From TrEMBL:
It comes from Paenibacillus gyeongsangnamensis. Keywords: DNA-binding, Transcription, Transcription regulation. Pfam families: Cass2, HTH_18. PANTHER family: RIGHT ORIGIN-BINDING PROTEIN. The keyword Hydrolase does not apply. This is GyrI-like domain-containing protein. Residues 8-106 form the HTH araC/xylS-type domain.
Amino acid sequence: MEWLVRMKDALELMESRMDEQLDIEDIAKAAYSSPFHFQRMFHMLTGVTVAEYIRKRRLTLAAQELAVSPVRVLDVALKYGYDTPEAFSKAFRKVHGITPSAAREPGARLKAFPRISFHLSLKGDKEMDYRIVEKGPFTVVGKSIQLSTRDGENTRRIPQFWAECHQDGTVGRLSSIAPDKELLGICTDMQHDKEQFTYLIAVEAGAGAAEEGLISRSIPAASWAVFPSVGPLPGAIQSVWARIYQEWFPATGYEHGEGPELEVYPLGDIASEDYRCEVWVPVVKR
């Protein structure tokens, strides 16, 4: 309940300052959270980033003003954080499908991105297994791709990337480099303000194991909350991810540790009802 109140306070702050400069530090402070943890929680719970939510809410309010008042387009653009009419027009058209000037015309069709609200949902009828693992720094070797979280691009692109890496032999190469290690799906270099991150398909191996077309990356030491996933992919592991952010984080004294997130995939039939894999999330005690 305390967590719910904090998230509502943060939303109230955002809504009250849509026409002002919004700093993520202030928003996160309203939720008694680190900026990284708040942004990750918000994205996982709502499906949109904080930046995307603010952008779409501002363009919704801007459209309403243009439709009912004679205010200049330039003034509306500046009010909602756009430096030039051109930048405002481009963003406006992307959301509403028409120019800001066309929004004044009678019968103009506009889109509204509604205000998000959080409601208390009683859960806990199903136990959630986890363990805390202390692991020192290690190196991975693999193939990476830069992804955007805007408009859910990452949810579409990651499965495609896995399919490409199977088809071009990357997965087979990684398995031969470290035959005793599981395949890893790694989200790292998360830049919430820019709505992008790096995704790797990799294995744990020394930097010298990197072959042509592969890269090596260092994963820092961390305390990891490790969650088992049992069932066919991707449904089973997606359910685990949802429960981590909807149930586990709000119910525990942990926050995200701001490091990479891992999915650990042993060999096996990923379509099987008893396929087992794991989610590793870096955590710190609040």
